[in-house]
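Standup notes
- DV: blocked on the single-chain target, sequence here:
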Amino acid sequence: MKKLLFTLSRKRILSLLLLAILTMACSKDEGGLPDPDSTDTETDEPEEEEDTTLNFTIEFIHVFGGSEDDTFHDVKATSDGGFIALGYSQSIDGDITDNTNQVNMYWLVKTDSAGNIQWSKTYGGTNDDRGEEVIQTSDGGYALSGYSRSSDGDVSANEGFQDHWIVKLDAQGEIQWEKNYGFSGSDQAFSIIQTSDGGYFTSGFLDVTASGGEGDDLLESENNEETRAEQHGVGEFWGHKLDANGNKEWRRYFGGTNNDRSYAAVQADDGGILMVGASESTDFDISDPKGSYDFWAVRISATGDLLWERSFGGTEIDIAFAVTKSQDGNYVIAGDTRSNDGDVTGFNGNADVWVIKINDQGTLLWEKTLGGTNFDTARAITAIPDGFAITGSSRSNDIDVTTNSGQNDFWIAIMDTNGNLQNQRSIGGDGIDFGLGIAANAQGEIIVAGETQSTSGELTSTNGSQDAVLIKIN
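- DV (later): unblocked, structure below
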């Protein structure tokens, strides 16, 4: 990543000006880089604290969509130097050129390195279909995860209400295969990864009450109806291991009697999987609950066996939305916290971004709270050479957050490998703006995806009430 420059404090500026006067006999220059947090007039004593805020370079901000609601929930850098963004759209006009049904459909946009659309495609049926994550696959194509209520169009079947819907595409965005997995309730997929064997792993949640306890191959193979019945709850972490053609190899669920949802997953070095999300439960698979909702991490083997699970947080609501592997083989998990106790230290107020690092045994290595005194959350994280980049949203304009343009702004933050804040920037307008996906390319550039409802400012919804957004920084 290109080197980021520190903003000079007034103390350094005055020192440099004095040196220039003594050596070059120049007249005094009152210019320079001001302290963005200072409202004071010049005094005899320079400030002692150095402002360590860094400068992002924004290469582009592009807004996409039609006359209805459109959003991007994920973005990845592609092997050709461009980007691929996934979300969903209700529009039948504007940048959406192949949708004739004014309902949500998976919406996939391929851009070049400058963010210009190369192609735009929608996938789904005549009901509500929402794309959550996209990956570029080893063959140069793409795989999509999300959830669908359709049983027509591109969707071959639906088991009831919402199903996990997984779609495999070629490099031009044409469907090669699609699969649905679910039961009669609300079953939603949020994450997909390509595994080292060429297959896939998807994670999300299962409405296990509606499934009647079905959805776990281990319990079903044991034919233990009593055990299956005990697992009934509002929702469970639900993972599927698929082969390269999308056929199910095994499926497992984990959780307790309350609401447990997995939002992200990564593959471990041994071929197993780490699933992360939030748990409200205090029983069954949850051994050490902390509070109302906790960050919950579930580590399983390559064959789906539970190796360990850990809860992290305090007595309030703590929700993990994203995970990435660090260069040392550990895991960094991001989300938000409303707690001021337990594992959470340095709470700023209302809700903070909370980032934790754990090892492959589930030991907490460090934790950091970021944000201001209002509501701040992280929804995506990616590893970069010198640390981690996160995005989400912020309503704050104090402590770690220097500006706010309206309601929720995109918030982009850079952390070093120890979780210390190195750089941050709010980007937004007068409405609700949300960062939902983040990725980095080989050149060290960062791309952020999300949505805007603003009508003025840096972000402006020019097409409909809500548009999709891509922002590129370095």
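- Follow-up: The chain has a mean pLDDT of 88.
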